[in-house]
């Protein structure tokens, strides 16, 4: 009898303990939501995690923790919490939408399409999910499906401007520039103060003196007391582009400077980390490391196009992708995702030092996962697929470990032209160093130093192509490029501007045009403003171009 009572009491205690855990979880969840609502995101994250400690099956906490990390720009860290929420409530369209959107942002395009498709099937009225699915299809270069999904989003909500904007971008990718500009102008007719659409319009318009009448209206929007910081950035970049087209360089530089200053101030950080651990790279990527690992993959399918942003990487990829056996995949985030995953898994050892003790099987898994994602959605009978994420130059050691036979193309351009072009671009994410000329020069020096190391550590594996030589001798340089890929020459590579494919970078408009050299030594137009940049570049100023 005593034993029976003892077991019964134990069961009651467990039930009571579980009930207390549920109550504590809900209490912490309420505190977390209050912090999130008030914008105290660090505190919100702390209490969402406490909620999950008491109740790991609290789907709302997992979803909101993912959302909060996403708001902080820590989207990679948010993914497992979104995954957990989807596992707990697999039929919740909003949770699926959050997860799918985050997957897209982190570069997992195919998985993103799968999850967002589920969301639209469960809720056929979820216009945001249809719009995000359209954007994901656009990134996959499936422009017909992208167009269809965005049209569906607009049917469900004709006032959802985000879908209209992306439809304009899809039209641009389809080669219908007139249709794209018409779409942007129609948005502005409905809402003349839409600064983001006005910025998009400026990117794809060549302004003449007849367009100067637009300037007073844009200046009036900047003077308005209710103009947000983001809108002011879009307007300053738009004005910079207009004045640059009009050859009014002092006014152009003035607005580009204000745009970048506002972006730099919004970061609320004393300095920008260059993100390049040259000391760690030199310590880890030794001949001994490369000789010790023998990865299974002998694939020559991936081709990595690297360099500074705005150094000609998009042009080089477009030439390559104009070959019938080459698919241009654009700027993929998968290598960055691998690095972030290794950093999270090996916090004590750190990256890249963890590679010294990594099992060969782990490297094989990384290579196979990358190849699987790379090939998904790609046309058949393709011999090479390009990944043109410029900042993969930092990770060439890891890339060499997992793909010992891969081709690496390094794009070089006059340092002053490269940096000035970065300064004039409103990058959607990353490239924070571009917001300040001194920090930009520092980052450029670090980039050149790490590339000098890779040339020594990976002799004969990196093909260098100089932008100035390419635009001056396009046929000769293009033939060298295709030969490096191990492919037979095709004349279609010279007609790269006719190749219809999605180009989703700041150079998308330029590669739709025949080759031109107007961007060579463009910095001369702004020479009197560039002393901080020239001084910061030091020995590199004036090199490369010739």
SSE order: HHHHHHHHHHHHHHHHEHEHHEHEHHEHHH
Characterize the overall form: globular
Cα-to-Cα separation, first versus last residue: 96 Å
Q: List the strand order in the largest sheet.
A: 2-3-1-4-5
Structural write-up:
This protein is mainly α. It has two domains: 2-190, Tetratricopeptide repeat domain (Serine Threonine Protein Phosphatase 5, Tetratricopeptide repeat, Alpha Horseshoe); 278-419 and 459-513, 3-Layer(aba) Sandwich (Rossmann fold), CATH 3.40.50.300. The chain is built from 25 helices and five strands. The N and C termini lie far apart (96 Å).
Describe, in short, the structure shown:
This protein has 25 helices and five strands. It has 546 residues and is mainly alpha-helical.
């Amino acid at each position: 009898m005593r034993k029976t009572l003892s077991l019964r009491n134990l069961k009651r205690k467990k039930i009571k303990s579980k009930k207390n855990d549920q109550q504590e979880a809900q209490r912490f969840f309420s505190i977390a939501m209050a912090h999130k609502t008030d914008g105290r995101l660090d505190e919100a994250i702390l209490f969402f995690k406490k909620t999950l400690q008491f109740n790991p099956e609290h789907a709302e906490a997992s979803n909101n923790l993912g959302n909060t990390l996403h708001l902080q720009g820590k989207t990679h860290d948010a993914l497992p919490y979104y995954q957990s929420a989807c596992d707990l409530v697999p039929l919740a369209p909003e949770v699926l939408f959050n997860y799918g959107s985050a997957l897209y942002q982190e570069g997992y395009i195919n998985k993103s399409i799968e999850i967002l498709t589920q969301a639209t099937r469960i809720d056929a009225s979820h216009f945001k999910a249809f719009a995000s699915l359209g954007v994901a299809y656009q990134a996959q270069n499936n422009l017909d499906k992208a167009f269809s999904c965005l049209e569906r989003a607009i049917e469900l909500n004709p006032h959802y401007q985000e879908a209209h904007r992306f439809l304009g971008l899809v039209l641009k990718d389809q080669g219908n520039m007139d249709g794209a500009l018409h779409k942007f102008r129609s948005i502005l007719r409905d809402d003349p103060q839409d600064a983001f659409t006005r910025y998009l319009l400026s990117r794809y318009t060549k302004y003449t003196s007849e367009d100067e009448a637009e300037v007073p209206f844009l200046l009036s929007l900047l003077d308005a007391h209710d103009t947000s910081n983001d809108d002011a950035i879009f307007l300053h970049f738009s004005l910079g582009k207009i004045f640059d087209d009009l050859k009014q360089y002092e006014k152009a530089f003035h607005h580009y400077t204000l745009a970048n200053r506002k972006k730099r101030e919004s970061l609320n950080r004393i300095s920008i980390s260059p993100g390049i651990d040259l000391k760690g790279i030199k310590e880890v990527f030794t001949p001994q490391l490369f000789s010790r690992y023998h990865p299974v993959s002998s694939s020559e399918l991936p081709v990595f196009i690297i360099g500074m942003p705005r150094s000609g990487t998009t042009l080089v990829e477009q030439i390559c992708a104009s070959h019938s056996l080459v698919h241009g995949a654009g700027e993929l985030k998968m290598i960055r995702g691998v690095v972030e995953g290794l950093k999270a898994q090996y916090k004590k050892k750190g990256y890249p030092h963890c590679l010294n003790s990594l099992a060969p099987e782990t490297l094989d898994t990384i290579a196979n996962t990358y190849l699987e994602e790379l090939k998904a959605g790609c046309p058949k009978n393709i011999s090479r697929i390009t990944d043109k994420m410029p900042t993969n130059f930092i990770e060439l050691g890891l890339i060499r470990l997992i793909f010992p036979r891969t081709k690496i193309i390094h794009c070089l351009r006059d340092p002053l032209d490269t940096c000035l072009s970065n300064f004039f671009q409103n990058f959607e994410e990353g490239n924070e160093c571009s917001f300040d000329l001194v920090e930009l020069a520092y980052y450029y020096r670090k980039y050149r130093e790490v590339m000098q190391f890779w040339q020594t550590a990976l002799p004969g594996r990196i093909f260098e192509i100089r932008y100035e030589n390419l635009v001056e001798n396009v046929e000769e340089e293009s033939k060298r490029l295709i030969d490096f890929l191990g492919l037979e020459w095709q004349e279609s590579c010279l007609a790269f501007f006719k190749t219809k494919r999605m180009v989703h970078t700041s150079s998308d408009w330029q590669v739709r045009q025949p080759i031109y050299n107007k961007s060579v030594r463009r910095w001369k137009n702004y020479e009197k403003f560039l002393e901080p940049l020239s001084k910061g570049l030091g020995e590199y100023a004036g090199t490369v171009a010739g």
